[in-house]
Design a protein that fits this description.
Blueprint (H helix, E strand, L loop, with lengths): L1 E3 L8 E3 L2 E4 L3 H12 L4 E5 L7 H4 L5 E5 L5 E2 L2 H5 L15 E2 L22 H15 L26 E8 L10 H11 L3 E5 L2 E7 L6 E7 L5 E5 L2 E4 L5 H8 L23 E3 L5 E4 L3 H4 L11 E6 L1 H7 L4 E7 L6 H12 L10 E7 L8 E9 L5 E8 L2 H20 L3 E4 L7 H4 E3 L31 E3 L14 H21 L1
Parallel strand pairs: 1-9, 2-12, 3-4, 3-13, 4-9, 5-20, 13-23
Antiparallel strand pairs: 5-6, 7-8, 8-16, 10-11, 11-12, 14-18, 14-22, 15-18, 15-21, 16-17, 17-18, 19-20
The chain binds flavin-adenine dinucleotide.
């Protein structure tokens, strides 16, 4: 049921069973799952069905990216990398879907704060259910007695370089009148699911001892204020905004909600893309064999080259991946280099196409990579604006260079390609780019309240009825696009909340 907040009376009190803050992919998936289970659900969504500049401007803030000694300001990123209307960034996402790597779940002793407190095995059934939701094939068909397709080539028997499958879902607002739009429309029509549009949660109100959420304060852009009360609350405003609401709701707990151990806003992780003019791959086997690795299609699985746990251990690096696409050759010099390289490798030229390589580099958890409230600047609704400092540590940069060398060696040894790369030259600034709009880690998951913000289900430590959904709960971010994992974790939380409802 669709309700416009600006049609509600000032001071209204709304009651529900489960209150979801945010109507992005998490809000949509969880809202429908809980409504299916018979729960009375309310989704509070800041935006309406269309994007509008005033609502979007609530996301503006300060942003920088850098390494241990560098910092490059890029304020536009905060507003440009997320979308504040019903459906959230799902309205614009690319739909690239893949699970985290097995290595991402492991505690790697060379990567401080690595390791997930839940296993890939535990998540696999939820990954498959997330795939069902996105109408893409299962990544773990073995759970249903099936087998996954093999890539067109095995590079070195998966010892150091690992081929990681990728599917593209059609569940994105990028496809006009496609399944994502239908999902949103159907959600707005459900009886036991109220979606309140134009409803900006401005404060999560705790009871006086700080152990439960009592109610939420909500504001509209035309000046209305009302409150919402439920039994259970799920914060699902995206990987950055989740932190803002928890930090800004500081009237009962001055350090912010869930921040007794000073982890809230820390270990913010993004996915950087690294390339320079020389990031090129010269295949030494026919293009047909690289077919699955070059380009993407919604019709078939494609593959990305990643590194295995053994390789990461050897290189003392985080995770790493290589994306390839055809590189139109510039007439003279590129062709000449191509010919020389082929001759050196003793290969014939025809049919071999130079490829452009972009590298993904894991942003390992770094306490100084941080989201904080700005002390002075406020948005139109009076909420403190954010400063986000995306900071890599030296491990990321050194490990990345070692991973590239390792990948180049393996590709060469197996005579499948030559990798050309000129090195970072000691400066992160020139080559590490804000590659993706993935925002992870800043309400990190840990079973130990001293080491994280939420427990293994996403419940805020110390607050009995408040959960966080989305990529902010990832303890490490790997290098996979996050949304399939977000959905897997959401469905897992949904099962828990649905069964709790039955027990109550
Ligand atoms: C251009 C682009 C391309 C991307 N491509 C990919 C991809 O190919 N693969 C992939 O895995 N990921 C991709 N992503 C990331 C992906 O979109 C996100 O991981 C995913 O959409 C996050 O969903 P969410 O529900 O957690 O958060 P969001 O989508 O951010 O939803 C949060 C919702 O909360 C609402 N909200 C915010 N503040 C408040 C408040 N105070 N009160 C009430 N409501 C509020 C917002 O309006 C929004 O609807 C991409 C993102 C972008 C922007």
């Amino acid at each position: 049921m669709k309700i416009h907040a600006n049609k509600l009376d000032n001071g209204t009190q709304i009651e529900g069973d489960v209150i979801l803050i945010g109507g992005g992919i998490v809000g949509l998936a969880l809202g429908n799952q809980l409504a299916d289970a018979g729960r009375d659900v309310v989704i509070l969504e800041s935006g309406t069905e269309e994007s509008d500049d005033r609502t979007q401007a609530l996301y503006e803030g300060k942003f920088s990216i850098g390494g241990p000694t560098t910092e490059r300001t890029q304020d536009a990123y905060l507003d440009a990398s997320r979308f504040r209307y019903f459906g959230g960034s799902g309205n614009r996402w690319g739909g690239v879907s893949l699970p985290l790597d097995p290595a991402d779940f492991e505690a790697r002793d060379w990567v401080p704060r690595s390791g997930w407190p839940i296993t890939l095995e535990q998540l696999k059934p939820y990954y498959n259910r997330a795939s069902d939701l996105l109408e893409i094939p299962h990544f773990f068909p073995e759970l249903d007695g099936g087998r996954f397709a093999e890539p067109s080539m095995s590079i070195n028997g998966e010892k150091t370089l690992r081929s990681r499958p990728v599917h593209l879902t059609r569940y994105t607002g990028n496809i006009e009148n496609g399944p994502f739009q239908r999902w949103k429309d159907e959600t707005l029509e459900r009886e036991n699911l109220r979606v309140i549009l134009g409803a900006n949660v401005s404060r999560i109100g705790l009871d006086p001892d700080g152990q439960r959420v009592d109610s939420l304060d909500v504001k509209t852009l035309d000046g209305k204020e009302f409150s919402v009360r439920g039994k259970t609350y799920v914060l699902a405003t995206g990987g950055i905004e989740n932190v803002r609401l928890l930090l800004a709701s500081n009237d009962v707990t001055p350090e912010g909600i869930g921040n007794r151990s000073d982890w809230l806003g820390r270990c913010f992780q993004g996915h950087a893309a690294v390339f320079n003019a020389f990031s090129q791959l010269l295949p030494l086997v026919p293009s047909q064999m690289w077919r699955d690795y070059v380009g993407r299609s919604r019709e078939r699985v494609s593959w990305v080259i990643g590194s295995t746990l053994a390789a990461q251990r050897q290189a003392r690096s985080g995770n790493f991946s290589m994306y390839l696409r055809p590189l139109p050759m510039k007439p003279k010099n590129e062709k000449a280099i191509h010919q020389v390289a082929l001759r050196l490798a003793g290969k014939d030229a025809p049919g071999l196409q130079l490829l452009r390589a972009t590298f993904g580099i894991e942003h390992t958890p770094n306490r100084d990579s941080r989201i904080v409230l700005q002390p002075d600047a406020k948005d139109e609704l009076g909420m403190p604006r954010l400063t986000v400092n995306w900071k890599h540590q030296q491990l990321d940069l050194d490990g990345f260079e070692r991973s590239i060398e390792q990948a180049a060696r393996e590709l060469g040894l197996h005579d499948v390609a030559r990798l050309r790369w000129s090195g970072l030259d000691g400066t992160i600034d020139r080559f590490v780019h804000v590659g993706a709009r993935h925002h992870m880690g800043a309400t990190r998951m840990s079973p130990d309240p001293k080491q994280g913000v939420v427990d293994t289900l996403g419940r805020v430590h110390g607050v009995g009825n408040l959960y966080v959904g989305g990529s902010s709960i990832f303890p490490t971010s790997g290098i996979a696009n996050p949304t399939l994992t977000i959905l897997a974790l959401t469905l897992r939380l949904g099962d828990h909340l649905a069964s709790k409802g039955r027990a109550a």
